[in-house]
Design a protein that fits this description.
Chain B: InterPro entries: Actin, ATPase_NBD. Chain B: This is Actin-related protein 8. Chain B: Belongs to the actin family. The complex is a heterodimer of chains A (about 550) and B (about 600). Chain A is an alpha+beta fold and about 550 residues long. Helix content of chain A is about 25%, strand content about 25%. Chain A has 4 domains: about 240 residues, Sandwich (Immunoglobulin-like); about 40 residues, no CATH class; about 150 residues, no CATH class; about 80 residues, no CATH class. In chain A, the strands form 6 sheets. In chain A, strands 1, 2, 15, 17, 19, 22 and 23 form a 7-stranded mixed β-sheet that branches. Chain A has a 5-stranded antiparallel β-sheet with strand order 6-5-11-12-13. In chain A, strands 14, 16, 18, 20 and 21 form a 5-stranded antiparallel β-sheet that branches. Chain B has about 600 residues and is of the alpha+beta class. Chain B has 3 domains: about 160 residues, ATPase, nucleotide binding domain (Nucleotidyltransferase, domain 5); about 130 residues, ATPase, nucleotide binding domain (Nucleotidyltransferase, domain 5, 2-Layer Sandwich); about 170 residues, no CATH class. In chain B, about 40% of the residues lie in helices and about 10% in strands. Chain B is built from 21 helices and 16 strands. In chain B, the strands form 4 sheets. Chain B has a 6-stranded mixed β-sheet, with helices on both faces. In chain B, strands 6, 7, 8, 9 and 13 form a 5-stranded mixed β-sheet that branches. In chain B, strand 2 and strand 3 form a beta hairpin. The longest helix of chain B has 26 residues. Chain B is globular. The two termini of chain B are about 20 Å apart. The chains are: A alpha+beta (about 550), B alpha+beta (about 600). Chains A and B meet through strand 5, helix 1, helix 3, helix 4 and helix 6 of A and helix 1, helix 3, helix 7, strand 11 and helix 11 of B.
């Protein structure tokens, strides 16, 4: 989507370079983020993004019932909600618990249930696709604690039983081999001399038995017949609990049945999708109708830390229902918010008049030297800031140049809405600055009669709008996308600089306040270039 | 090699002095392990440090979960939008393009890895050891990316790389066998003896999932039928049969083809008619289109699919009007004949799918209908079994090739413990068919048709697998759901075929990784300290002049891989043993000599 502006986080760039990659590379998009996704570490004085912060879980909750799950049961329940939350195996909608119809007493009149919980057995029912759990034979005696009622099936799942058996199968073997190798390999004397330890280890390694290859024994070697190859491992044969070869004969499908099912199926609808069965480590039926309800996976509340200094950047409140944060160092509170747009010129208006089409066509025209765009900067700080924009020089001969006001300009302080009762003051102050700016910024532009395009165009409250121009070469096609360094100077509340001055806060107040500068990179995307012919034909349509 | 690969015995007692810190840590955590819910001051340690995270990062589908569990917690496409593989078999040759490709790949891997810990597993990576299931031919630069992301960005305490083939064997309770992994990019066969992968005997073929997909897609474009949605809901529309057109290119999105592949396709038994089609067979009279001879078939069908892998989109758009356009007439008319033949003998039903119509046809009247002919569903997988090419042997041929390389006294053992894993092996009917194909490929080649040319007797046909023929009674696929044991099968084959637990082929490697995690084996651990040490010292030494070669060497010293094995601790024997560039370790040599 264009026009857009994104902020750079240097975490992906190698070591010491802070300049962002050229925006033409597809990989550069991973380094740029929109402002609301970024954090700001006060300690490191740096922007941090979601790709580099380290994430810590500060609590688990079920997204469906918002129950805060204690960590102890998170592990046992495998990150799933252990209450009544299930999702539909077909459409992933949340299932609701419904009671069965009351029994017909023969009189034809509906029997009013004694209470509003209805009759057992209870079912899980999907309000979206009408799937219900009785299709796979799952019903419940009581309408609460469904997960616990299903637990016994899960505990006896064939894959976990087989898994335990496999573990038992390997454990003695491993124990034996670790014992033998530890006695072989770590002789207590080997620590005395480095050389001796090396040779000891080497000789131990050499003398160690290789399982399956018996010690050289000429008699056995010459005369052992066929049986020599039967079992070369030291391992005993593993006897499976459920053999895959017998699986099909147990009545629950199997490979042949699957082939037959597929051979005669008419619609793909009755076959479960890959996504619906790829988590099953155990051979299961392909039929959609045999899918079982899924327990809803838990979500976690996370706090994020700066990867460098480990300070917390954002920390949510503990309660699952709360959407507030205890700590929140969002970059939006530190960096000026930039937004980019096009002025309502004739061409742009015409393009906008085309409706949907104008979204696909560029506003930038090839062969035109003054394609105008605007950047609006919003100051989130309580003090005015001085901003300086410097678009990165495009050196690789791409066909456009960007002109922006290169001299610093100011943005007013952020103030809460109710503080704007006294507008005159602000405008007085702004006016001389504006005059100064305009005079400086448009000194040379005036001569050519387009002072209005480049320079500070508008200033109100804590927003300043500056205009820029793009000169696109005739032959250039592609995106107009460039990196831009934004530096801003602000008055620091930080007592740090004045500490060497014997820490007298009064002096800091009296003197001109300490000033600091912060710079960050952005990428400005002005969309694709439209050739003149295209745009004319578009306007004729 | 013993120190590097996952030998259960080598692992539990690290022999190198550098590994001592780890040993003590393991010993310490054993105590912690004793009480499952030990209390710590750290709030979020739900799991002991020995509960490892097991990640099986396929090029297309990732399987992730915790060690000690019987099934993964989460399975997802590595590229959730197009389900494209993250990496392929080729890299750009131009250095700049390649660097950009690598950056993109690393970004994607990082994104996936972060989501594994933060979204799938909801756990803190800083206290989770990781077992990374690796394919033996996973490119080293990708392996290094995994290490960089895990150590650098996520700061996991340690990584163990474990070969997928060995882990698959663990999941069926064995440590010896011939494992064939039929995945997306490649089919790789690796013999493993006593938990030691015999890497030099690795054999691969690109006939695997992605080739199957492109073949299926090409067949659908040629022989599939498509009915656009009704133009108008009020007027009575002609019946479906009258609205059928060829399949437009743009509706066959990657996800749709994937859906057809995973929900509609299956593997049927060998197409006998192809043999019987010779004049002696009575069926010939029925078939109007004489299919070309066997060898011709092999060449043209695979050629066709190979072409389809690269440039089908354009060529098929241009050849819309008729099935046999002038471009590539040979293969297309052959395919038409094959299609006729398959149609005639296929009992599989046609399947109708509702598909999103192309933008030009979206009138708000619902979805179009795609009809997948039954024979495509049944026979698309033939491409995997069609051998004859030196570089792209059929899936059965690579198994035999690997067996040819295996030392003679291990061949019987290997032949009778074949394990088939990988996502493509999930096709119903794949494994029984593979068994049949094995026997077919090993059978003596038929006599050439023209017995003599220019009066000279024809040379005897090249009999590649004659050596292996005594193995026929021993062939047994461990996880064959329909074990074909005959009276002639050896007792070992009978004892092995179909005796594996019914884990699905696609997840065997993950389950094995989970077992390795639970049993605390599974590859040499690379500790983060080692990684950090190497890279921080490097930064201190020369902050400005870090050359790519330097970091390459560092990585090499830290990340083990069988292709660059430094001689293990017992390396003194290397001088005694016959030197061979391929033999990676004294063990393999010992085995070879035994």
């Amino acid at each position: 989507m264009w026009p857009s502006i994104q902020y750079y986080c240097p975490c992906l760039s190698s070591a010491n370079t802070l300049t962002p990659p050229p925006p033409v590379l597809a990989s550069s998009s991973a380094s740029f983020h929109s402002l609301h996704n970024l954090y700001f570490c006060e300690e490191c004085d740096a922007v941090r993004c979601n790709r580099c912060v380290s994430v810590e879980v500060s609590g688990y909750y079920c997204p469906n019932c918002l129950f805060e799950v204690p960590s102890a049961s998170v592990r046992a329940e495998k990150n799933r909600c252990a209450r009544n939350c299930f999702s539909c195996p077909i459409c992933r909608a949340t299932l609701s618990v419904v009671a069965s119809d009351p029994p017909d007493d023969g009189t034809g009149r509906p029997v009013t249930p004694l209470n509003n919980v209805g009759e057992a057995p209870y079912l899980l029912y999907c309000n979206y696709c009408r799937w219900d759990s009785s299709e796979v034979g799952i019903t419940f005696e009581k309408p609460t604690g469904l997960a616990a009622q299903l637990q016994k099936y899960e505990d006896s799942a064939p894959e976990s039983l087989e898994y335990e058996r496999l573990k038992e199968h390997f454990e003695p073997f491993l124990r034996a081999s670790s014992l033998s190798s530890s006695t072989h390999l770590l002789p207590p004397t080997s620590h005395h001399l480095h050389t001796s330890s090396a040779t000891a280890a080497a000789s131990a390694a050499l003398s160690r038995d290789i399982p399956g290859i018996s010690k050289y024994n000429p008699v056995a070697r010459s005369r052992s017949g066929r049986d020599r190859t039967t079992n070369k491992d030291e391992m005993p044969e593993y006897k499976s609990r459920v053999e895959v070869g017998l699986f099909g004969q147990l009545g629950s499908g199997g490979d042949d049945a699957d082939v037959e099912l597929l051979r005669y199926t008419e619609t793909a609808g009755e076959i479960a999708k890959l996504e619906q069965r790829w988590g099953n480590s155990w051979t299961t039926s392909l039929r959609m109708s045999e899918l079982r309800p899924l327990r809803i996976p838990l979500h976690s509340k996370v706090s994020k830390r700066c990867p460098a200094c480990r300070h917390i950047l954002i920390k949510p409140e503990q309660k699952a229902q709360s959407v507030r944060y205890k700590i929140k160092l969002a970059a939006a509170n530190y960096l000026p918010a930039l937004s980019v747009g096009f002025p309502q010129t004739q061409a742009a208006k015409r393009a906008a008049g085309k409706g949907a089409d104008s979204r696909n066509a560029g506003v930038m025209l090839a062969g035109i030297t003054n394609n105008a765009f605007r950047v609006a900067l919003t100051n989130p700080l309580y003090d005015p800031i001085q901003v300086r924009l410097s678009p990165q020089r495009v050196t690789d001969g791409r066909g456009f140049q960007v002109s922006l006001p290169l001299t610093p300009f100011s943005i007013g302080a952020f103030a809460e809405a109710w503080e704007y009762d006294d507008d005159e003051d602000m405008f007085d102050m702004e006016d001389d600055e504006l005059g100064l700016e305009a005079g400086r910024g448009s000194r040379d532009k005036d001569a050519r009669g387009r002072a209005k395009n480049v320079g500070v165009l508008e200033r109100r409250a804590n927003v300043t709008v500056v205009g820029g121009e793009v000169n696109v070469h005739k032959s250039y096609r592609g995106q107009v996308k460039f990196n831009m360094l934004v530096s801003y100077t602000y008055r620091s509340d930080d007592p740090l600089p004045s500490e060497d001055g014997a820490g007298t806060p009064s002096r800091a107040v009296v003197k001109t306040p300490e000033v600091k500068t912060f710079s960050f990179y952005t990428v400005v995307d002005l969309g694709p270039v439209l050739s003149k012919d295209d745009s004319e034909s578009m306007q004729q349509v | 090699m013993s120190a590097l690969t996952t030998t259960p015995r080598g692992k539990t007692a690290p022999t190198t002095p550098t590994a001592t810190p780890t040993t003590t840590r393991i010993a310490g955590s054993h105590i912690l392990q004793a009480s499952p819910h030990y209390t710590t001051t750290r709030r979020h340690s739900l799991y002991g440090t020995e509960d490892r995270v097991v990640v099986d990062p396929g090029s297309r589908i990732w399987k992730v979960g915790f060690g000690g569990e019987g099934r993964p917690r989460d399975v997802f496409y590595s590229d959730p939008i197009n389900a494209e593989p993250l990496w392929g078999l080729s890299r750009a040759s131009d250095a700049a393009t390649r660097a950009e490709q690598d950056r993109l790949l690393e970004i994607n891997i990082e994104r996936r890895m972060r989501s594994v810990f933060h979204e799938s597993l909801l756990t803190d990576p800083k206290s989770r050891k990781v077992i990374l299931v690796e394919h033996p031919l996973l490119p080293l630069h990708i392996k290094e990316m995994f290490a960089r992301v895990l150590f650098g960005n996520l700061q996991v305490p340690s990584i163990s790389f474990a070969p997928s083939h060995l882990l698959s064997l663990l999941s069926v309770g064995r440590i010896t066998g011939l494992v064939i992994d039929c995945g997306h990019l490649e089919t790789a066969v690796l013999p493993i003896f006593a938990a030691r992968p015999l890497f030099p005997h690795l054999r691969t073929t690109p006939l695997a999932g992605s080739r199957f997909t492109s073949h299926l897609r090409a067949l659908l474009l040629l022989f599939g039928k498509y009915a656009p949605p009704p133009t108008n809901l009020t007027v009575v529309n002609p019946p479906l049969a009258n609205r059928l057109t060829r399949v437009p290119q743009e509706i066959l999105t990657a996800l749709l083809v994937e859906d057809i592949k995973t929900r509609c396709c299956f593997v049927s038994s060998v197409f006998e008619a192809r043999h019987d089609i010779r004049p002696s067979s009575p069926t010939t009279s029925v078939s109007e289109a004489d299919p070309p001879s066997e060898s011709d078939a092999a060449v043209s069908e695979s050629e066709f699919s190979r072409a389809s892998a690269s440039d089908v989109p354009e060529s098929f758009v241009s050849s819309q009007p008729g099935a046999s356009s002038d471009s590539g007439t040979g293969s297309e008319s052959y395919l038409q004949a094959l299609a006729n033949l398959y149609t005639r003998y296929s009992s599989a039903s046609d399947v109708q799918l509702r598909v999103v119509p192309p933008i030009s046809q979206q009138m708000g009247t619902g979805r179009g209908t795609l009809i997948v002919p039954g024979w495509i569903r049944e026979r698309a997988a033939e491409v995997l079994f069609e051998g004859g090419d030196v570089d792209e042997g059929s899936v059965a041929e690579v198994i035999l090739d690997a067996l040819l390389k295996v030392p003679i006294d291990l061949r019987t053992t290997m032949a009778s413990s074949i394990l088939v894993t990988g996502g493509t092996a999930m096709l119903p009917g794949f494994i029984p068919r593979l068994h049949v194909e094995l026997l077919r490929a090993i059978a003596p080649p038929g006599q050439p048709q023209q017995s003599s040319r220019h009066g000279r007797p024809a040379p005897p046909p090249y009999d590649r697998y004659a050596e292996l023929r005594p193995l026929i009674p021993h062939f047994a696929i461990l996880n064959n759901p329909a074990p074909q044991v005959s009276a002639s099968s050896s007792t070992r084959a009978k004892a092995n075929a179909g005796k594996a637990p019914a884990y699905t082929p696609a997840l065997m490697a993950w389950v094995g990784g989970s077992l390795a995690g639970a049993l605390k084996t599974g590859g040499m651990e690379i500790a983060r300290e080692k990684w950090d040490e190497a890279f921080s010292s490097q930064n201190d030494d020369d902050e400005t002049a870090i050359t790519a070669a330097d970091s390459e060497q560092l990585l090499e010293s830290i990340i083990p891989d069988w292709t660059r094995i430094p001689l293990p601790v017992g390396a003194l024997s290397a001088s005694a043993a016959p030197k061979s560039a391929l033999a990676p370790s004294p063990h393999a040599q010992a085995i070879a000599r035994a």
